[in-house]
Amino acid sequence: MTGMQTKVLLRNIGVPNSHEIETYLSRGGYQALQKALREHQPAEVVRIVADSGLRGRGGAGFPTGRKWMFLPKGVYPRYLICNADEGEPGTFKDRVLMEHDPHGVIEGIAIASYACEVHQAFIYLRGEYELSYHRLRDAIVQASERGFLGKNILGTGYDLDVHIVRGAGSYVCGEETALLSSLEGKRGHPKLKPPFPATEGLYRKPTIVNNVETLFNVPFIVEHGAEWYRQWGTERSPGLKLFCVSGHVERPGTYELPMGTPMRTLIDDLCGGPRDGIPLKAIIPGGSSTPMMPAEVALQTNLDYESIFEAGSLLGAGAVIVINEKTCIVRTTHRLAGFYRHESCGKCIPCREGTDWMYKILHRIEHGQGRTEDLDLLLDICDNIAEKSFCPLGDAAVGPVRSSLTHFREEYEFHVSEKRCLVDG
Amino acid sequence: MLSEKARQEIRTLCQQYPSHQSGLLAALYVAQQEYGGWLPPEALDEVATLMGLPATYVASAASFYTMFHRKPVGHHRIEVCTNISCSLLGADHLLAYLSRKLGIQVGETTPDGQFTLLEVECLGSCGTAPVIKIDDQYYENLTEEKVDHILDRITTGKGRAS
Ligand SMILES: Cc1cc2nc3c(=O)[nH]c(=O)nc-3n(C[C@H](O)[C@H](O)[C@H](O)COP(=O)(O)O)c2cc1C
Ligand code: FES
User: What pairing do the DSSP bridges indicate for beta strands A319-324 and A280-284?
Assistant: First the structure.
């Protein structure tokens, strides 16, 4: 079955010692870096990435080349940050890349840094990722020894240092401006945008923040060209994407597919369909922040930004969470509400208070003390958090609550009137 | 007191960044390691002095991050993910099982100081749920039997079980 997967990004995964530089080199690694440095001016690399149509894989899908073009001319130093905070429940693709193909991550960082005329790059790594830390640290040492990092890279006169900074358990620090605060040695509070990091970021200098998977795509694009990359995907969502599937399927895991592949191919063919044959109820297509969809609706969509958006949700980071019919939606939503309440940084009132209220109301519904008016109250709170919070964590918190109330309201009503779950689950 | 080695490590860490304050999280990790897995007030004060930052500033920053512990922890930290993908595959039962087996509630440490049981958010291992992390190691696709086996290996001193 795995034969149906495209194996470009994941080509090294499963190869013995895939994390060692010898393995990486023997499989064509660091060719793209040499090509970028020897054959292209930085601006040409930016152009190639822009032409490929690559969009940020951290969740928002912002065009990568365009972001790099936002850097103000002539302002230095500039910084590049590889966002490896990966905290969105349902997501684990960046960890797979960092543990099994750390040199791919490093090469992506090096090419992106060259394109953006950066000499100091940081990897902001989630604190729990111990093995990723060791693998990346060793990769940096190995790459430096071979002249792919450090001073005068490959004799071209280009210098780059890469540092790993370890987070310490805070989901909001994945948000790019909160990440900057944390990297500056502060509480991880988000900052007001604009200015966007590209104009004023780390230490108030122009800073590019890109997700691990985004940067991981860059060497492939630079080596083979924008046209080659566009052979996959759709016009507006080009290229290849990693999808993390978790929950009620037979074979959860990380899968690589062209954008625009039918959801059904992923769930039924690659993941082996519903676990134990129990029919599905809901699918969360892009990570815990993206709206929950009824399974039958989700299974009609294709895996690209536009298709999922038209069907009422978001592709997000491509973390597909599959929920079967024996699961209580109220209970599941209650758990997610607990997460957002815990992770709200407390800086702005709509998010800090709103996530707490949502949690408390869901808690009483879940525990048989809900009131009929609670359901509309929840929707009202959603309206007061969404788009009224300082950073997008507020919107993220609303995602599961509003969507589950829209699609599975009868489960909430049953909880309120019968004081128990509609399912035993 | 932080050892001279730790103090030196913190100084070196801070020099790696364009602004030495960027080394704060790394410094707190070093201090936490020295103090047996948690950060008592004196550890925070020492880091503050070393870095030339106000003590209240360091305490406030540290309290923002869940991986900095402000209460003593056991010799081994057992972190059970109960977020969505893990709970879809039975994490709540696993947590209850561990709680019964160790005879402690979430957040508590066994009387012999061996284990602290913690409930944590998504560990980034949702495809191999349910998942727990003991100290630095992930244990995936867990069942009660596997948990028994892992804890046995740790308590009998055979170290990590994979
Ligand atoms: C609450 C919150 C958490 C986020 N967490 C992450 C994360 O862990 N990793 C990530 O790459 N982006 C995360 N993002 C998105 C970043 O803010 C940013 O858009 C991204 O790193 C940009 O990189 P990209 O353009 O390559 O996707 C998060 C955003 C929000 C609002
Ligand atoms: S939900 Fe448990 S590891 Fe992600």
Answer: antiparallel
Q: Which of A95, A129, A211 to mutate for ligand 1's pocket (most ligand atoms within 8 Å of CB)?
A: A211
- Whose Cα sits closest to atom 25 in ligand 1? A56
Max Cα-Cα span within chain B: 50
Side-chain-facing half-sphere of B89: CA atoms under 13 Å: 29
- pLDDT tens for A89-129 read 999 999 999 999 999 999 999 999 999 999 999 999 999 99
Residues A217 and A333 in one domain: no
How buried is residue A312: exposed, middle or buried, by Cβ count under 10 Å (0-12/13-18/19+)?
A: middle
Q: Are residues A51 and A107 in the same domain?
A: yes
Task: Decide if B33 touches A, using CB distance below 8 A.
Answer: no
Asked whether residue A27 falls in the same domain as residue A110, the answer is yes
CA–CA separation, B159 and B162 (whole Å): 10
One domain, residues A184 and A58: yes
Which residues of chain A lie closer than 8 angstroms to B123, CB-CB? 128
A262 and A351 housed in the same domain: no
Do the chains contact at B21 and A86, CB–CB below 8 Å?
Answer: no
Same structural domain for residues A207 and A253?
Answer: no
Separation between Cα atoms, residue A114 and residue B23, nearest integer Å: 25
* Total number of domains constituting chain A: 3
Segment A345-390, tens digit of pLDDT: 999 999 999 999 999 999 999 999 999 999 999 999 999 999 999 9
A245: nearest Cα among A257, A233, A236: A257
Contacting residues of B for A248, CB less than 8 Å apart: 88
Model pTM greater than 0.95?
Answer: yes
Straight-line distance from the first to the last Cα atom of chain A, in angstroms, rounded to the nearest whole number = 30
Closest CA of chain A from B147, distance in Å: 20
- Domains along the sequence of chain B with CATH: 4-64 (no CATH), 76-155 (3.40.30.10)
Ligand 2: atom nearest CA of B84 is: 1
Interface test with chain B among A128, A244, A256, by most B beta carbons within 10 Å: A128
CATH code of the domain covering residue A375? 1.20.1440.230
Identify the band that residue A4 occupies on the pLDDT scale cut at 50, 70 and 90.
low
- Number of Cβ atoms within 10 Å of the Cβ of B30: 22
Question: Is residue A31 domain-resident?
Answer: yes
Using the Cβ of A292 and the Cβ atoms of chain B, whether some distance falls under 8 Å is answered with no
Are residues A397 and A255 part of one domain? no
- What is the distance in A from the centroid of ligand 1 to the CA of A85? 8
Q: CATH no. for residue A253?
A: 3.10.20.600
